[in-house]
Amino acid sequence: MTFQLILRYFCDHFRIFLQSNLLIFFLLKDKMWSKLNARVLRNIYLGLCFVVLFSAFSALVSVQKTITASIQHDNPSYKTDAYISLGIVYTSMAIGMWLSPGIIAKIGSKCAMIIGSFCNTIYMAAFYTEQSFWIYLCAAICGFGGSIMWTGQANYIVLNSEIGKVHSGIGVFWILYQSSHFLGNLIIYFEFNHENQSVDKAMRTRIISVFVFFAAMATLMMCFIRPPLRHKEQKKIIRYPCTEIVKSSQILFSPRMLLLVVTMACVGLHLSFLSILSSSMGFSKYLSDNSKKLAPLCGLLQGFGEIMGGILSIVVGGKRICNLKPLITWGVICNLACYIIAFLALPNDSPHGFTDNLPLKVLPIAFIIMEPILAGMGDACLHTELYSGIGAMYPNDSSSAFAVFKFIRSIATASSFYYSKCLGLHAQLVIIISTSLVSWILYHFVQWFLIRPKPSQDEEMVECK
């Protein structure tokens, strides 16, 4: 019966999934396909693997707080907290980032992504047990697997791109990867179609079964990933695990990276905020009689914003206006607008559970809808800009450089999940708004004074008149 349910869901929503990704082909049709097809097809297939995996994982993150609250409703002795388990995921990921470059040097980016996907599958399957020990243990395993998976993914994209043109590969991957928000959140949205705020055990089992199935399929798909086009060039450089750890340390304490730490931390804080925003909307009863449906709906709208940001990265990625990077500027503006709306429109205690309290101001529904879209767009702009910038700065040490980025981001994300259990929404927003403003200033300081563009570079300059 469960397998039939999975097939029904897959068939019903696969059409929507295909339609959401057709835009990529229209964006690429005017390019020199004869030269780019091998590069683009590899990036597209990689993106499809992550679509299938994160159709499950992203949706689970969106509603994990709702699921754990429902388990506590049925079993008061259940003490697992969704924010703590996600904090463990990112703490383990941060620790694993120091080992991931050395692991990738030995096993390659493809094997790293397969192992990481399998660890994600284990974490989702742990929710069958509804026991704190197994969920927290598998969260740690998932975080370590995620560290090598994401470092391997970034390394693969860099090696599959022309030097100086990483932003195109990142943009294509990002659009595909973020379309995963649609499929998983649509499944949950239709499953949550009843008035009872709690999610009963039968429904929880169905949802987890679908998620585990998608994660297992993604792991199988990753076995067929083709090598990146520059993998032979990379093999000429002999790398050792200990050397990679030393190299990551040197990159971390270089002047450019130290100045970018705040920007990378800002990306991590915003990443955790995406999940907190979904939970807060799902717990705000004043928004709807069946408010729990708003959590997956928020995740779906975030995916729409992420895709818009990915398209924007293809259009303006690598360009400068008045020696400013417009992509990161637009990302910060989107995030600040989202934070202000959340500050006004969501109750202060909404991240912690269902609440009947009213916000500071009841805004029109159009603002509520724009909130997750702006959050997703800002996340895409910041991520793609940092990916392409770091890839351009360290083309021959991409795995070590991205490991540093993921380490700082994971530390910030884990810290945000930990203090989210104690702080109200307004205090969290004050922290992230302050960090966003400082990160914008420091990022452009690096661009102006430490990374001066040269005429030979591939980045396109736009004159100010």
Descriptive account of the structure:
With 465 residues, this protein is mainly α. It has helices at residues 2-28, 33-74, 82-97, 100-125, 132-159, 166-178, 180-191, 201-222, 231-235, 241-252, 255-283, 294-316, 326-345, 365-393, 398-420, 425-449; strands at 320-321, 461-462. The chain has a two-stranded parallel ribbon with strand order 1-2. Helix 6 (166-178) packs antiparallel against helix 14 (365-393) and helix 11 runs antiparallel to helix 14 (365-393). The longest helix is centred in the first third of the chain and has 42 residues, at 33-74. Residues 1-7, 16-22, 24-35 and 453-465 have low confidence and may be disordered.
| Count of alpha and pi helical runs | 16
Q: Which descriptor suits the 3D outline? A: globular
Strand content: under 5%
Average pLDDT: 78
Task: Give the beta-strand count.
Answer: 2
Distance between the termini: 66 Å
Percent helix range: over 70%
Q: Low-confidence segments, ≥5 residues, pLDDT <50?
A: 1-7, 16-22, 24-35, 453-465
CA gyration radius, whole angstroms:
21 Å
* H-E string: HHHHHHHHHHHHEHHHHE
Describe the biggest sheet?
2 strands, parallel
Strand order of the largest sheet: 1-2
SS content category = mainly alpha
